[in-house]
Amino acid sequence: MDKIFRYFPDLSARQKEQYAALRDLYGYWNERINVISRKDIDNLYEHHVLHSLGIAKVQPFKPECDILDVGTGGGFPGIPLAIMFPQTHFHLVDSIGKKIKVVEAVAEALGLANVKAEQIRAEQISGEYDFVVSRAVTDLPTFVTWVRGKISPSNYHELRNGILYLKGGDLSEETMPFAGSAKVFELSNYFDGEFFETKKVVYLPMKARTR
Which end of the chain has fewer beta carbons closer than 10 Å to its terminal beta carbon, N or C? Predict the structure, then answer.
């Protein structure tokens, strides 16, 4: 957890408390509903929390904007980002109900009033969002088909509205259909450690829905 504080030194006391509470909360729920690999729970802060916050390094979110987390699982990257940006609205969705149960319980325990969790498939969502975030739920071209038409036409950030996608490894083939528009941010430029050497955030601007 010290790494969180080192890379994000301006956290409030409340935010520090919320991040500190994640270990016990996910430890408790992971014993009942397996949302994180049991052998990986000891690496919660580096492999899950800090990894999720790589998006915050690429694009900090402004107050009152709307973020959709598709395939959130147990709440990643949405929960760590919701703690980081308490005035930003987060909609965390997953098709598996028991995972959403964990998200709801964790958000309630942390007092995250800016989080809405819902069991729903991405294709069924009708809202508009500034950014869609996710963590390697499928290949990028497939993901784009899931969320196309869900981007707000109003841009308030340094990056134009679109997708911020956490993924690792060689992404040249996946990003090829979006050559010229997709941008890959290496998380090793923001965080130290072997884990982040191959981890990336793929940013893909997307057009808003045609009205």
Answer: C
Q: How far apart are CA 13 and CA 193, in angstroms?
A: 26
- Starting at the edge strand found earlier in the chain, the sheet holding 66-70 runs 115-119, 89-94, 66-70, 131-135, 162-168, 199-205, 183-186
Q: Which of 150, 143, 75 has its CA nearest to residue 107? A: 75
Q: Which tokens is 42 given?
A: 């000891």
Structure-token pair, residue 103? 């998200």
Is the pLDDT assigned to residue 115 strictly greater than 90?
A: yes
Q: How far is CA 178 from the centre of its chain?
A: 21
Please tell me the distance from the alpha carbon of residue 29 to that of residue 69, in angstroms, as a whole number: 20
pLDDT tens-digit series, residues 117-174: 999 999 999 999 999 999 989 999 999 999 999 999 999 999 999 999 999 999 999 9
